[in-house]
Each structure stands twice: as structure tokens, then as C-alpha cells.
From TrEMBL:
<keyword id="KW-0472">Membrane</keyword>
<feature type="transmembrane region" description="Helical">
    <location>
        <begin position="84"/>
        <end position="105"/>
    </location>
</feature>
<dbReference type="GO" id="GO:0016787">
    <property type="term" value="F:hydrolase activity"/>
</dbReference>
<keyword id="KW-0378">Hydrolase</keyword>
<dbReference type="GO" id="GO:0046872">
    <property type="term" value="F:metal ion binding"/>
</dbReference>
<dbReference type="InterPro" id="IPR051158">
    <property type="entry name" value="Metallophosphoesterase_sf"/>
</dbReference>
<feature type="transmembrane region" description="Helical">
    <location>
        <begin position="47"/>
        <end position="72"/>
    </location>
</feature>
<keyword id="KW-0479">Metal-binding</keyword>
<feature type="domain" description="Calcineurin-like phosphoesterase">
    <location>
        <begin position="160"/>
        <end position="328"/>
    </location>
</feature>
<keyword id="KW-0812">Transmembrane</keyword>
<dbReference type="InterPro" id="IPR029052">
    <property type="entry name" value="Metallo-depent_PP-like"/>
</dbReference>
<keyword id="KW-1133">Transmembrane helix</keyword>
<protein>
    <recommendedName>
        <fullName>Calcineurin-like phosphoesterase domain-containing protein</fullName>
    </recommendedName>
</protein>
<dbReference type="Pfam" id="PF00149">
    <property type="entry name" value="Metallophos"/>
</dbReference>
<dbReference type="InterPro" id="IPR006311">
    <property type="entry name" value="TAT_signal"/>
</dbReference>
<feature type="transmembrane region" description="Helical">
    <location>
        <begin position="117"/>
        <end position="136"/>
    </location>
</feature>
<comment type="similarity">
    <text>Belongs to the metallophosphoesterase superfamily.</text>
</comment>
């Protein structure tokens, strides 16, 4: 993708259709919000005008922000437009949901509550958006998780894996945020660092300066990574090369055997669950990832971007799978819809003998907003199973 200093470029036909559809949908939903809220807010002429202007700007800028990196140059301007559109997307999302909930509540409430409930919707939207913004933009907390492994060799009691995932370096997540993540990650002094996909949203040439701090990740046995679906959206070949240049070992349906204080363990990785749609040669395959590994080694650990790799991982015989992708839903109520696509939304779960840990993600995608689903850097600690 070229980076012309001025001007813009036209969108491919498929993206133009998507943008047109998005604008029409945004217009309809914003019209619904205006119809249901503005008459009941009791604002004067100036208030009405401000409300209408906000809804018009939001209708236009949300899809414009989504398309900015494809059509606007220079990149710095595209990023500012993306920022504005993403903020409005987060605000609009909460405003729409709360307006819908208000309409449901008004079925049972007296009509005298129309004014107060409309004001409450606006106030809650602003509050949730502000809290969500602060939660999204701060460096993630460390989530400490203990995983009990049957027949874990004594030298591996307390073995630690620091996991980051879904960083989404791109229009709104830049170098300073990445550097903060690396500092907190390294302070954990883990035995292994696992990077489970969706590090980037954009091309290598544009994002190289911002992802550069990842070269500073440090762990006793190294840094291992797998691809996520967003690497495929952004050009997987150049990104795999860039990750390896930064010191990560990218596992593409393959494994490596580590030795920790005399005890072996297997670290394997698969390509993203959807990778085969982009390149048949990249089809995700947990069985292939474990093929040829020494028999009798415990634990066998799989890095897989999407939790829905778990059934195949269990069948292949893995002990532990580390995943991301879901963002824990990122903010309510979208967390309610994640189970429609993924078997696990967040946290530690078990499928047969396989443990699956699904991180809520280290960054965010789209709106800089996290509410009810905090971002995390995860520290996995292996301990022997009891009983």
C-alpha cells in the first residue's frame, strides 16, 4: 500500500458496497435514536439543533473512520479520522442499546417517566463511554492464572507463560502503548512468552515503528507466536517475516521441544482457525502441529488464536491451549453474542483432558472502549493436579 503525502484513493468495489450499506444502516439507526430520544429530552431549539448535528456527524463519521486507512492520505490524517470515528462508534453503540432498553422499559413504566428516562439514557451513555475509554487506554493489568496439569514433572512445577494477544496495533494503538505492555510483560520474568495472534491492523511499512518495542520482549526460553485472523487481513507473509525479525518464533502448524531444568515440554502453534480461507496451505491443523513430537512428554501446550480450535486440540492430545480473539466481548452487551461463534468467551475452561485459557486481549479493536471485559496480560503458572 503506497503512502502518498496528499490526496485520497478510491475504494475497491466490494469495500464501496460495504461502505454504502454501512452508511444506510447507520442512518436508519441514528434516525431511530433521534425519533425516540429527542422529543422526550425537553431541550430548547439550541439543544435540538445540537442533538441533530451530533446524530448527523456520527452517521457520517463512523463509516468514514472505518474506511479512512484505505482512502485518506497522509496516514497521520487517516489515523485522526479513524480515532474520531472509533470514539463515536463506542458512544453510538451504548446510546443505541440503552435507547432500545428504554423503549422496552417504557412498555411497563408510566408515561411520566419519558423525560427522566431519556435524560438517564444520555447520562449513562456518557458515563459508560468515559469509563470504557479509560479502561481501554490504560496499560493492561496482569491476570494470574494457575493451571493444574496431571503428571507434571517436578522441574516444571511453577513454570510460567506470559501471554499477550489481540494487541491490534493500528490507527489508535501506537508505539507508547506497545512499549508499556512490553515493560509490564518483562517485569514478570516469565519462562516463556506466548503471543496468540491479532497483533496488528495494517501493513508492515506503516506499523513497523509502532510495533518495534516488541523486539524487547524477554523470556528465559524465548517468545513464541501464532497468526490471528487480522494478520491475514493485513498481509500474513510480510507480517510473519517481521515478527521473526523482532525475535518471535512463529509456529505455523508446528512445534518445538523445550528443556526446563532437565524436563522437556512441547510448545506448539497453529495458524488461525480461518487461515485456510485465505491460503489452503495455511489451514489450521493441531494434529499436524503435534506430529513428530516425542511421546510421553507432559505438558503439551498449544497456541491457537481462536478458542474454537479446542475440539481439534483435545482430539490431538494437547494438555493446554492458550487463545484470544474474543476480547471477552470488549464491552457489554456484545459479550452476550460471543458464545454464538466461540465455545469460550474468557477465562479457564476444560474440554476432556484439555485445559483452555481464553484471554480477554491486551488491546482492543474498533472503539477505544472496554466495559465489563478488562484487557489483560496473562501470567499462566503450571502446577501439578491434585487428586
Amino acid at each position: 500500500m503506497s503512502d502518498e503525502p496528499n490526496g485520497s484513493r478510491s475504494l475497491p468495489r466490494g469495500r464501496r458496497r460495504f461502505l454504502t450499506t454501512t452508511v444506510a444502516l447507520m442512518a436508519a439507526l441514528h434516525l431511530y435514536i433521534g425519533w425516540r430520544l429527542l422529543p422526550d429530552l425537553g431541550w430548547n431549539g439550541a439543544g435540538w439543533a445540537a442533538g441533530v448535528i451530533f446524530l448527523l456527524v456520527s452517521t457520517v463519521m463512523i463509516p468514514t473512520g472505518m474506511a479512512a486507512r484505505f482512502v485518506i492520505r497522509p496516514i497521520s490524517l487517516a489515523d485522526r479520522v479513524s480515532w474520531f470515528g472509533a470514539l463515536l462508534m463506542g458512544l453510538f453503540s451504548s446510546l443505541l442499546v440503552l435507547t432500545l432498553l428504554r423503549d422496552v422499559a417504557l412498555i411497563a413504566l408510566p408515561q411520566t417517566y419519558r423525560h427522566d428516562s431519556a435524560l438517564l439514557v444520555v447520562a449513562l451513555t456518557l458515563l459508560v463511554t468515559l469509563i470504557g475509554y479509560v479502561n481501554a487506554r490504560r496499560i493492561p493489568r496482569v491476570a494470574r492464572v494457575t493451571v493444574p496439569i496431571a503428571d507434571l514433572p517436578a522441574p516444571l512445577h511453577g513454570f510460567t507463560i506470559a501471554q499477550i494477544t489481540d494487541l491490534h496495533v493500528g490507527p489508535t494503538i501506537k508505539r507508547a502503548y506497545v512499549a508499556g505492555v512490553v515493560d509490564r510483560l518483562n517485569a514478570l520474568q516469565p519462562d516463556v512468552i506466548a503471543v496468540t495472534g491479532d497483533l496488528v491492523d495494517g501493513e508492515v511499512d506503516v506499523l513497523r515503528p509502532h510495533i518495534a518495542p516488541l523486539a524487547g520482549m524477554s523470556a528465559r526460553h524465548g517468545v513464541f507466536a501464532v497468526t490471528g485472523n487480522h494478520e491475514y487481513y493485513s498481509g500474513v507473509g510480510p507480517w510473519v517475516s517481521e515478527f521473526e525479525r523482532l525475535g518471535m518464533r512463529v509456529l505455523m502448524n508446528e512445534h518445538t521441544v523445550l528443556e526446563h531444568d532437565g524436563a522437556p515440554l512441547v510448545i506448539a502453534g497453529v495458524t488461525d482457525f480461518s487461515a485456510g480461507k485465505f491460503d489452503a496451505a495455511h489451514a489450521s491443523d493441531p494434529t499436524r502441529a503435534l506430529a513428530g513430537s516425542p511421546s510421553g512428554v507432559t505438558p503439551t501446550i498449544l497456541l491457537a488464536h481462536q478458542p474454537r480450535s479446542a475440539p481439534a486440540a483435545a482430539e490431538a492430545g494437547f494438555d493446554l491451549q492458550l487463545s484470544g480473539h474474543t476480547h471477552g466481548g470488549q464491552f457489554w452487551p456484545w459479550s452476550l453474542f460471543v458464545p454464538l461463534q466461540q465455545p469460550f468467551t474468557a477465562g479457564l475452561h476444560k474440554l476432556g483432558r484439555l485445559w483452555i485459557y481464553t484471554s480477554r486481549g491486551t488491546g482492543y479493536w474498533g472503539p477505544p472502549k472496554r466495559f465489563g471485559a478488562p484487557s489483560e496480560i496473562t501470567l499462566i503458572r503450571l502446577e501439578p493436579a491434585v487428586g
